[in-house]
Write a structure and sequence with these properties.
Blueprint (H helix, E strand, L loop, with lengths): L1 H9 L4 E3 L5 H11 L5 H10 L2 E3 L3 E3 L7 H10 L6 E6 L3 E5 L4 E5 L6 E5 L2 H13 L7
Antiparallel strand pairs: 1-2, 2-3, 3-4, 4-5, 5-6, 6-7
Length: about 140
């Protein structure tokens, strides 16, 4: 998680966080949804509340008022129930609860394009790899 937070300090104009949610409310929401998600994404949600990054990418947090609205198209396309959508934009990214990893997927076919072991690896190798040069991140 540190890379994305470090980048947000370097280029705050492209990291528009929603703001820290109440941690108890976040844990309650995760329990209500029956999710088992890695601690690194929970820590990210607690720190930022998700938000918009690189102008076109949205990092979702389950405490967002419109979380269900944003993830509804993916669910309607038949996205597996154990996949937790946490990013929409250039692609769609999920936490696969059954394997406890992060994946970039094609919504219509459910084809997994990339798999990462951690939230930080997902950010560094997927989003940051695409946008770092454009936004002056070294």
């Amino acid at each position: 998680m540190n890379t994305i937070l470090d980048d947000s300090r370097i280029a705050p104009q492209v990291f528009l966080w929603n703001g820290r949610p109440n941690a108890d409310h976040l844990y309650q929401r995760i329990a209500e949804l029956g999710w088992t998600v890695p601690s690194d994404i929970v820590a990210f949600w607690i720190e930022t509340g998700g938000g918009d990054v690189f102008e076109t990418e949205e990092l979702l947090c389950p405490t967002q008022q419109n979380y269900e609205d944003l993830t509804w198209p993916a669910r309607q396309a038949g996205l597996p129930e154990d996949w937790v959508v946490f990013h929409i934009g250039w692609g769609t990214s999920v936490v696969r609860q059954s394997t406890v990893d992060f994946a970039v997927v094609e919504i219509n076919t459910h084809r997994v394009r990339h798999v990462y072991r951690s939230f930080d690896e997902w950010y560094r190798r997927y989003l940051r790899a695409e946008y770092a040069t454009r936004y002056g991140l070294k």
